[in-house]
Amino acid sequence: MESDKLKEIASQLRKPDGSKGLEIAAMMENTNAGMIRQSFSLLDLQSDEFVLELGPGNGFHVNEIFSIANIKEYCGLEISSLMLEASITSNKKFINSGKAEFRLYDGKTIPYPDGYFDKIFTVNTIYFWESPLDFLKELKRVLHPEGLLNITFADKSFMQWLPFTAFGFKLYDLEEVKDLAEKAGLKIKFTKSGEEEVKAKTGELVTRKFLTIGLGWV
Q: Cβ(213)–Cβ(181) under 8 Å?
């Protein structure tokens, strides 16, 4: 596949835009379903909690989150205005009831007070953090001292073979994320691996290995 096409795929995965972005978002919701479900299922959600998700995409999975636990509030932050609109459209009932809100942000600063969230999770966004250590410190800032942050990502051993990851992706393995977490003043509470067969963005079926790392204050 020519480099221009690969660059377009990489760009859309980072920040979906236009009609192609909607197609990519629908594909991501489908292919990432197992990763998304593992990430929020491991949060042990409770009814009195405030929950943040970074990069909810089209937000179709938010309904499942509320079916697990009638949490106090769900907040979704997006860097893509297209995905923000899609999330709002698919979750109007939760927004109208005051249970959910979706906001656009710059991918660097989280627009909430210190310690606001009991639980935070994000799936397949870590590759695109511009300053990973600073951003992880920002996540710690908005996490309650007794809270939990789940980061779910596909392992470097899998991702490095996908041709589009050469364009703007920073790939990680378990040890690299652990090192980043320690530098940010966070400790590892658990790690959970997963494996599933998915259709890659370039069309072929592949076996994806992924990890969820649970982090908390030291």
A: yes
pTM over 0.90: yes
Burial (Cβ within 10 Å: 0-12, 13-18, ≥19) of residue 193: exposed
CB 103 within 8 A of CB 84: yes
- Are 119 and 47 in contact by the 8 Å Cβ rule? The answer is no
Distance CA 90, CA 95 (A): 10
- Give the Å distances, CA to CA, from 193 to 27, 60, 161, 207, 208: 22, 24, 19, 13, 11
* Among 42, 35, 15, residue whose Cα is nearest residue 158: 35
Specify the 3-state DSSP secondary structure of 109: coil
Mean pLDDT by 10 residues, the chain (218 residues): 77 78 73 93 97 95 96 97 94 98 97 98 97 98 98 94 90 97 98 85 77 97
Q: How many residues make up the chain in this entry? A: 218
Q: Would you call 167 helix, strand, or coil by DSSP?
A: coil
